[in-house]
Amino acid sequence: MRILIVKTSSLGDVIHNLPLIGDIHRHFPEAVIDWCVEESFAALVRLHPGVNEVIPVALRRWKKRLLNLATWREMRRCQQQLASIPYDLVLDTQGLLKSALIASRAHGIKCGHAADSAREPLAARFYERVFSIPKQLHAVTRNRLLAAAALGYRSDDRLDFGIQSPAVAGEGLPPRPFVVLLTATSRDDKLWPEANWLALGRRLQANGFSLVLPGGSAPERQRAERLAAALPGALAAPPMTLDELAGLIGQASAVVGVDTGLTHLAVALQVPTIAIYTATDPGLTGVFGSGFFKNLGGKTQEPDPESVFAALWPALA
């Protein structure tokens, strides 16, 4: 049996989709599973040994360059690749119009969310088989239940993201043990005040932990550098690829992060994690896994540094 999974973005959504790969292999050990994903997240999917081939798409980049002839050539090559493989099943777990259109280009029985279950109900029109999955469940559970319904098995309680931290060079890293602070996120209202990060960082340093602060974009790196400068000995990490970040996070004693995909990655790697929410409710999309993790805060419920440290300390002690 050959299966195509379509889950293109975002980083957190892709991570929430990882457990169904192990589920499928437990019920169909000989299954060959390919995954179509946004190019910027392809390195993460490749960390899962149960994924045979990663088919990258570049919807975000293509959207910005629709008048470029090279973009249309690249889109055509991607469509030809999707159409060249005979799949037994094409499973779109994203439930968006864009993902349904991608799934429609592949050969195989198209499966996905029913209109009452999909994030964009119109997407259900592109599937041959649809399934209603309760919306009040966590995203990880919804993905697993959709795959189970499409393939005819019963989902169990075992939860395994199936990825391990890749090896990274230790040069330039602070001495262990260290804690990674993920201070950057996609929206300003999801940020935790810098004064809170400084208070938490000082508590961690006082208890013998070094600090690493990654940052992607220029504003994110500037924030990390400001915080590191005020926390003597802390490291503002240089720009890193996604698999390099996975390697860094995998070596950490713990991770504290705001509502960002990398915080979900830490949980998937089974690193003790505290997720801080200030603008959204973590109930259905918060961090979720089988190791030590806690979701703190919520919409208009900003946690204070002391409560974050107290929640994290049992994992560090």
Helix content: 25-40%
Sheet with the most strands: spatial strand order: 3-2-1-4-5-6
CATH class of the largest domain reads Alpha Beta
CATH architecture of the largest domain: 3-Layer(aba) Sandwich
Please describe the biggest sheet, giving its number of strands, its sense, and whether it closes into a barrel.
6 strands, parallel
Q: What name does CATH use for the topology of the largest domain?
A: Rossmann fold
What is the residue-averaged pLDDT? 95
Secondary-structure content class: alpha/beta
**What would CATH call the homologous superfamily of the largest domain?**
Glycogen Phosphorylase B
Number of strands: 12
Strand content: 15-25%
Order of helices and strands: EHHEHEHHEHEEHEHEHEHEHEEH
Count of structural domains: 2
* Secondary structure tally, helices: 12
Integer-rounded radius of gyration:
20 Å
| Gap between N and C termini | 47 Å
